[in-house]
Amino acid sequence: MDADAAGDGERVSAAADAFAPLADGGQPGWYRDAVVYSLDVKTFQDSDGDGWGDFRGLIDRLDYLENLGVDCLWIRPFYPSPLRDNGYDVADYRDVDERLGSLNAFDDLVAELDARGMRLITDLVLNHTSTEHEWFQRAREDPDSKYHDYYLWTSHVDEAYHTENIFPEFEDGVWSYDEVAGKHYFHQFYGHQPDLNVANSDVQEELFSIAEFWLERGVDGFRIDAAHPMILPKGHNAHRLEDPQWLFRELKRRAREVNDEAVLLAEADDEPDRLDFYFGDGEGFDALFNFVGNSHVTYGVGVGDSWPLYRMFEQIPDAQPDGHVWWANFLRNHDEWNLLKLPHDALEHAREEFRKGGDGRDSWVFGRGHRLRLADLYDGDHDRIAMAHSLLLSLPGTPIVNSGDEIGMHADLDRPERQAVRTPMRWDGAEPNAGFSTADPEELVIPVDGTGWPGVFQADAASQRGDPGSLFERVASAIDARKRCPEIARGDCSIVHVDSGDMWAHRFDHDGRVLLAVHNLASGPREVVAGFDVDPADAERVLGDADYRVADGGVTVTLDGCAYLWLRGERRGDGGR
């Protein structure tokens, strides 16, 4: 075997053809090759000592992100907001919250990213606004104003449509009374987030114009927040859009008129048999956030069992390297770990198995998930976290790394609700506020450290960078491997069945080449035999240090607990599929 890892040299900044379009007739292909890093500007880096992260601070940390290897940022809402829902309660769609900077600072970020060959995706919250948005203020004050019809009202709430609120622990329903308007308004989220009437043509034009505004400032695409609630029944009569796909098609058309490489990613946590709807046969969203994958992969890795991975592939449409179905894959995000896509028995098992607060507090929230980070779910086991990222980066789709997971940050259950998993980035534990800010701790947007439980807040970036065995460097190596493997974005993926239930193997076939990825979900060592139709002399180690032997159309792999191996080579026989 070849004992030298192919990725031990200098990391490449991007695959040679990273921005080449795929063979699907003109759809932009850059996002399929990208590795995305998700962050919140206000909790990433404070540049001026006021306790709030800002755009200048983010710019100062771009070297870190470039060293990690990511080539696209997804930044969460940065618009003016009362921040009663972490910025997803937008008060002005066309500006920057002054605590985070200015439009000029935003433009400077775009310029810095362009200079580094990096892309930028921003959140667009189009389902609802804050009650402090000018539209709502004008709507409540004047029933004859066009803005009144931007929202959904009823004067007879007992006769109106009712459905379950998305935050059932904190909201009694979907209607709240406004004393100024003298009516109830409809909201699927918190009561301070009134739903927009997206069936109103004036509202639709506003939404299209907002997207155009940010694209003209250099944004490369959007994560469309709450795409599923946007098209659910709304208002007194539970009306729906006549053609829900039209709204997404038109948004995409208008976006592409400004930037022909703009991409739309949907946060559409819908039922698996409904997911294909959002792609619109190629005219809808470019990719969907893979909530089925998130629950199944993260659970499977956590319990050391491969059946959830098999089930994931059964539940969702296959990613299509030359078609319209594509996934944005993630292990954890900035919300609770939503388990509703697991079968009932597994959900109940996960509810108890991962319910941990160290000092007995409960992490379960909203009746659907845990407000824990990846390090909490995996008991701080960096080997398991590294293996999970290797699996994430080897799956078909675009991988998204959540800020802080690459160094093993923990949740802080002292913080309310989802804020537990949204604490500031820990740069250097030897510095005040772990290097996030020079402000007094009480002035921070969110405390860096809570009282927490012993031993969970040590993770930081400074202690890991440059250490080959650290979690940061192992995640960076996996990102580098992903960039050197165009097979993942362009190849046909298939499951490689192995005997052991705590092992997982899959492969990609592309252009006569095979890429095989093997992951040991168990804590102890395993040996597995997998099909691998590559000549032994041609087998190339891409990632991982496991022993392997290629012979007779297969490969025998010996892996330590939570180890992984990526192999590739020219396919023997018919020259490829």
UniProtKB/TrEMBL annotation:
MF-aspect GO terms: transferase activity
Keyword Transferase appears in the UniProt entry: yes
Pfam families the record matches: Alpha-amylase
GO biological process: carbohydrate metabolic process
Keyword Amino-acid biosynthesis: no
InterPro entries in the record: GH, GH13_cat_dom, O16G_dom_2
Protein name: Maltose alpha-D-glucosyltransferase/ alpha-amylase
Organism, as annotated: Halobaculum gomorrense
